[in-house]
Specification:
disordered N terminus, 277 residues, alpha+beta, 4 helices, outer membrane lipoprotein receptor (LolB), chain A, 27% helix
Length: 277
């Protein structure tokens, strides 16, 4: 009977040990890519608040093709506007008028500088460093493979970055979260890695975590962006981006040939551009 009891004890210890190994192995895995979508679309409403005055900047519909393709549709008081960008080459259609060129559009830059940049912290090469508590929740601590002063804490349950520090500078910090039936449904993060300080609210939905609000402390005032009705298709049907990419290449080639005074070649290229436009 003693031998039987000993075997039961050893079996229990073995099960406990193996369970512990599974937990350690899971903890050592790389962080999950919590926002990993090639294509997405959302309703977008943007206000600028300066003192007591609040101005509507945009109420429209946004599409993206990660990482450099964007399009937004919105209405002004007089006409519809569609702005499309592929790697910085922009088409602006206002009513029936269409213009092309290299330009920067603030809405697309804000999405890249804050949302995309935040999601990319999960993709850098990281090494598991241990478990901590951040904001009273279990968090996995990682160190960047190429920089021991670059430390990141990801919430164990959601995989969201709760704290990121580099060279004693805080880049991301959780400020609040909402629990419903013990499950986290909303998180607010302060962001200090972009051009200006900002905060982002992430909300849990059927397709994972999605940004619902972005606030940026712009020098002109506070920009408040609300994003809703997200969808993440597998492709962008009838995408204008390949055409824009071709126009961008032709535009560069035209400028090169024109600068070299190869005017006949430049003329042929310009006609090809007109046919595409």
């Amino acid at each position: 009977m003693k031998h039987c009891k000993s075997r039961f004890v050893l079996l229990a210890l073995l099960i406990t040990f193996l369970f512990g190994l599974d937990r350690v192995s899971a903890a050592m895995e790389s962080p999950v890519a919590w926002f990993d979508h090639q294509f997405g679309s959302s309703s977008v409403v943007v206000h600028l608040t300066v003192g007591e005055e609040k101005t509507l900047l945009m109420d429209g519909f946004l599409k993206f093709a990660y990482p450099n393709g964007f399009q937004v549709h919105y209405l002004t008081h007089t006409e519809a506007v569609t702005i499309t960008s592929e790697a910085g080459f922009v088409q602006v259609q206002t009513g029936s008028d269409v213009q092309y060129g290299y330009d920067r559009f603030w809405l697309f830059e804000d999405i890249q500088d804050y949302l995309f940049a935040l999601s990319e912290f999960s993709r850098i090469p990281l090494e598991f460093s241990g478990m901590d508590k951040v904001a009273e929740r279990r968090a996995r601590r990682y160190v960047a493979a190429v920089d021991p002063e670059f430390m990141l804490w990801f919430d164990e349950e959601s995989g969201l970055p709760f704290l990121i520090r580099q060279n004693r500078r805080t880049l991301v910090s959780v400020t609040s979260y909402i629990l419903e039936n013990g499950k986290m449904t909303s998180v607010e993060l302060d962001l200090f890695f972009g051009p200006e300080p900002a905060s982002i609210t992430l909300t849990s939905g059927p397709e994972g975590w999605m940004p619902s609000r972005l606030e940026i402390d712009d020098p002109q005032g506070q920009v408040q962006m609300e994003l809703s009705n997200w969808s993440f298709p597998r492709e962008w049907g009838d995408s204008p981006l390949p055409r824009l990419a071709t126009l961008s290449e032709l535009n560069d080639l035209f400028l090169e040939e024109f600068g070299a005074e190869n005017f006949e070649v430049a003329l042929d290229i310009s006609q090809e551009m007109l046919a595409l436009a």
